[in-house]
Amino acid sequence: MSEPGFRFCDDLGPKTILHCHRPSIGLKAILVVDNVAAGPAIGGVRMAPDVTLEECFRLARAMTFKNAAAGLPHGGGKSVIFADPAMDRAQKEALVRAFACAIGPIGDYIAGPDMGTDETAMAWVKDEIGRSVGLPREVGGIPLDEIGATGFGVVAAAEVASDYAGLDLKGARVAVQGFGSVGRHAARFFAEKGAILVAASDSRGTVHDPAGLDVEALSIVKEHGDHVADLPQGEKLVGDAIVGVDCDIWIPAARPDVIRADNAGAVKAKLIVQGANIGVSEEAEAMLAERGVICVPDFIANAGGVICASVEYHGGTEAQAFQTIDEKIRANTAEVLDRAKRNDILPRTAAVAMAGERVRKAMGLRRWG
């Protein structure tokens, strides 16, 4: 194993690292199964040209903590495919199917959708190896991205955390960085709670209107394959300008480390609820906490997708999935923020301690190796 991998080895994992390489079809991928003490690992398949081994390790550990914190009978894992998800559909299908065949022997990993993959991709995986979640309804799944399971959980976490931040969700101004499968549904659920979307971004830019954006119109723009900047309404901003937008609640819902030490000072929000995995660096979280900004950790706030996936895997219904997401995320958010306040520690420190306790207890009940 290369040197970067050793930095992530500890008493929790990783259990398995698989490098997949098939030059004949352009497949290059990595699977990390971090920990399976609580059960087979569930974790998404991320597709992007700039994914890295380190990113895969960090995401796999986040899944271990996410599943443990949510009390799911699953461990954590993650996989990444080095490719452009916007490639030709036939080429993408061939790549995903080849990847599925490569991970087939790793029986304690269950693939799910992530950035760059979707329900259709999971159907291809299921067709090849009989093991995936987040499937289309047509093959008996609960399409977690289509119904907005992760975004629903983000808003549940925000509603609990708003009390700790001294906010009323009704009328709160929200900015969503990454108006995709998580972000657009989060915006929809926020709007249902009476919050106001004042800014949204995607890979091409940001649209901003202090008076509030039309969430439905913005969603239609995205459904047509356009970008948020194509919305006629609002001021158009470039780059990562959304970081400094004046708002109450800021939602990272795209790539890792969008808020870092070098731009954390621009944040004006009182509350950050992480819809993206590792969306805020740990250094930035500490800097924001010094200013009184509450950051709800990723694996607490964005567990809705994997909770839905677990409900699906065990034969539950869509209604049961939403109920379970709401109950678990609200309870975990409150426990983490109570621990943080009581012990005068960062919410992430409290969340890692809570999840770590649950993982180690599971490890103590099994012969795991």
Write the SSE topology.
Blueprint: H1 3-6, E1 16-22, E2 27-35, E3 41-48, H2 53-69, E4 76-82, H3 89-103, E5 109-113, H4 119-129, H5 144-147, H6 149-164, E6 173-177, H7 183-192, E7 196-202, E8 205-208, H8 215-223, E9 235-237, E10 249-252, E11 271-273, H9 282-290, E12 294-296, H10 298-301, H11 304-313, H12 318-343, H13 347-364
Parallel strand pairs: 3-4, 3-5, 6-7, 6-10, 10-11, 11-12
Antiparallel strand pairs: 1-2, 2-4, 7-8, 8-9
List key phrases describing it:
Rossmann fold; five-stranded mixed sheet; 13 helices; alpha/beta
Describe this structure in words.
With 369 residues, the protein is an alpha/beta fold. It has 2 domains: 3-141, Leucine Dehydrogenase, chain A, domain 1 (Rossmann fold, 3-Layer(aba) Sandwich), CATH 3.40.50.10860; 149-304 and 332-352, NAD(P)-binding Rossmann-like Domain (Rossmann fold, 3-Layer(aba) Sandwich), CATH 3.40.50.720. It is built from 13 helices and 12 strands. The protein has helices at residues 3-6, 53-69, 89-103, 119-129, 144-147, 149-164, 183-192, 215-223, 282-290, 298-301, 304-313, 318-343, 347-364, and strands spanning 16-22, 27-35, 41-48, 76-82, 109-113, 173-177, 196-202, 205-208, 235-237, 249-252, 271-273, 294-296. The chain has a 7-stranded mixed sheet with strand order 9-8-7-6-10-11-12. Helix 7 (183-192) links the parallel strand 6 and strand 7 (196-202). Helix 3 packs across helix 4 (119-129), helix 6 (149-164) packs across helix 7 (183-192) and helix 11 crosses helix 12. The chain is globular, with a radius of gyration of 19 Å. The two termini are 18 Å apart. The model is unreliable at 1-5 (pLDDT under 50).
